[in-house]
User: What shape does this take?
Amino acid sequence: MQRERFGRVELEAGGVLAQVEVGYETWGALNRTGDNAILITHALTGDTHAYDEEAGDGWWQGLIGPGKPLDTDRYYIVCSNVLGGSGGTTGPASIDPQTGRPYGPRFPLVTIGDMVRVQHLLLQHLQVSRLALVIGGSMGGLQAIEWAAAFPERVERCMPIATSAKLSALAIAYNDAMRMAIQADPAWQGGDYAAGEGPVQGLILARKIGMITYRTYDLFEERFGRETVRADVPLGDTRFQIESYLDYQGEKLTRRFDANAYLTLLKAMDLHDIGRGRGGITGAFARITGRVCWVGIDSDRLYPVREQRMWAERLREGGCAVEYREIVSPFGHDAFLLEFEQMGAIVEAFLGGRESM
Amino acid sequence: MQRERFGRVELEAGGVLAQVEVGYETWGALNRTGDNAILITHALTGDTHAYDEEAGDGWWQGLIGPGKPLDTDRYYIVCSNVLGGSGGTTGPASIDPQTGRPYGPRFPLVTIGDMVRVQHLLLQHLQVSRLALVIGGSMGGLQAIEWAAAFPERVERCMPIATSAKLSALAIAYNDAMRMAIQADPAWQGGDYAAGEGPVQGLILARKIGMITYRTYDLFEERFGRETVRADVPLGDTRFQIESYLDYQGEKLTRRFDANAYLTLLKAMDLHDIGRGRGGITGAFARITGRVCWVGIDSDRLYPVREQRMWAERLREGGCAVEYREIVSPFGHDAFLLEFEQMGAIVEAFLGGRESM
Assistant: This one.
């Protein structure tokens, strides 16, 4: 991961950050005109590590690489950690240069628009003139569609996946439960926990709630069913594999994610409404000049296809050049992290749809 | 609510209760042959108060009454609180007669089968010889289908609604998250909290997780959308109506429900598998002699229709007299508490399908 430092950043809700460090990774090379760039915007618990040529452990490994749909031979691919996050970019666990202590609960309110403006600073620094594509799923999709409305002249193509132009009540509801899980943990201490400590149980529970919501009945049934961790134990000691799996996923997250950052990102998601300050959704969509390919997932329980089709339809009504594609998957919301074959075909068709570079 | 006390009850998992008190309500009159009874089995947070002729505040008020689908002029209707619950029947908040203190975390493990055996004791006491119908949704449905397998000679008709013959991995997953919400609250104190105290925040969070799961994207979107509690507040003070609604629902439950009872019922649900000790589901279904009408809800996200249709199909394959009906509703899982018109029509057809009484 590389890091770049920027000066004073004023935030949408009125806060100010005296400086912002941005963690990011890039793959491929920028062309002379600076317009073969692709920006990958990551989801809630995502990070910059979308691809790793050697280790092969990037979270979008199946989509990125030489000759892959996100082709590192043709494109300059950038993935930066979001503002307020926990993976290299300034966030609540960062040191406030004005106090020498971590921001903790004093970290200012950040919006999806703020994340996008910081990404814009980074791309300017990297001499990117125009994005051939901005692409992301879930919270990454919130950023992708915000990009198209905030910097239309910079966005040639935009692919929001399993996401919203403004967050739904259902998604706010789940965020509310995850927020309470963290804040009700006494180890949260109002956000003022010491580095490396913090609300481990609360973050585990938040992650569990998330994981269940991101998956499906069918998947859990097929993969776990009523399988138990150990057979031949008294009935009262029954522990199901699905419980063990959720514990594991929760604990895994606590080793790499700051709880205050999790809260910051949840709130940014809740406040996501690309129509704010732009005359509503219609006004925001009227700004978009790039082409949009909106992608839904048929089994998504958090951002249901009904909503995905609605956004594509409203973009079309708003005069945008939009197409809609749907991934068929048993994985639910998380399919955008797993169904590389279908995703790849959609990305290739969208990028190849007209002359690029 | 009436109460009846029974002696020593041995439980499936090996525990023993020296005595069990059962809270229940009845409406209508039992006939001389004792076979015009209907047993209503309630859901996780349900209670005995399914109907109230005067106050009109029963939770199945729309289904019960003179001339209603569950007709108090024709049937003797019984609704008892479940064993291990929080509404009148012996549960963790009850006084252990052997110690003079509440059972708390020492309350023994209870199964759905145990609940049904205690209901059977009550019905024997009430001189009911046969159930014209046992009916319930969600956890009530777990009991209904258990009744048909446990006491086939006593069940003429059985109507499980939005439920399972053995609990799914998805339902166990949500139960796991709700359990953690309660147990991670330091006020839970390993279950040894004082009466009237206890893990209020944990129970609120558990209820929130439940409420979200019991409803749907469409319903929340239509009813709440992105409506805020107050307009014209700074962005950072935004509070959405959906958050306020979930807080209210959570707090409301804590005023009437014991957290240890909630945990006891979650575990009973997890362990629900009518095939246990009966040669699997096929063996259990082979015991059933009564008619079954299995009811699904098209928008149910917790007990999806795919599962509901599967249970009806497996009952049919097992040689049971089964029919399947589906409620069309935007309410999701909770539709069995709300869609009285459709529910009523299904109940009437099922009860009227052949000579009764």
